Amino acid sequence: MPEIEADTALAPAKKPRVRARMRFKPARLKLSAQDATRPLQTASLHDQLVARLREMVLDGELRPGSPLPERMLCETFGVSRTPLREAFKVLSTEGLIELRPHRTPVVTPVDADEIAAVFQMMEALDHLAGRLACAKVEPQDLARLDAMHTRLVHFHQHEQRPDYFRQNQEIHAEITRLAGNPVLLATWTAMSAKIYRARAQANYDHSRWDASLAEHEAFMALLRARDAEGFAASLADHARRTGVAVLATLSALT
Prior knowledge:
Elements: H1 33-37, H2 45-58, H3 70-77, H4 81-93, E1 97-98, E2 106-107, H5 112-136, H6 139-157, H7 161-178, H8 182-202, H9 206-224, H10 228-253
Antiparallel strand pairs: 1-2
Helix pairs in contact: 2-4, 5-7, 5-8, 5-10, 6-7, 6-9, 7-8, 8-10, 9-10
């Protein structure tokens, strides 16, 4: 049979689709210029969107009580409403976003009374973690913590607050992990998540930031000396002082 060729010459050329884009002002959602111009990659879109929003909430870029207009966020991240709403559901289960029927979602407000109660728990948990960790720490563990502390000092010297705060959290998590008690670690992790946002806000007071680093220097010296009781007491005191600073910051914001 003779081959039949399609007459492509007569087929009308498809016009490229032009997507209307809305003007978006990052300041309306307190987004940084970097976040507002950095598109999400297509791979693992859901995970990236959840991670980006979580980071913005935890770092205080989206403040407690801030509204989260879907249309503006969709335009910011270049996504449809479906993945955005799925991300909202995940962050809602983490207690970071409050979903309200027929109303704009908001960043979950911080409850000062709950924060105060959690810091009381953290003081006791850090004391226990410090005593157990100091008794079990190996030379390689101490070397790892020393390297983490060096990075902490670097971030402070270069005014890299978000990096400092994340490194700070990693140091405390590592100390608790070294305690070797899985129940303690799980409890500490759950309590730490409840005050993560509030702790980040306290570091924006420079005097508290300087004091926090000095406290880190003090308890690291006690750990190097293998002074278990001194290290535990210093960690607990650091938690107490942090709690006082956090509550003062929350009071100033209200």
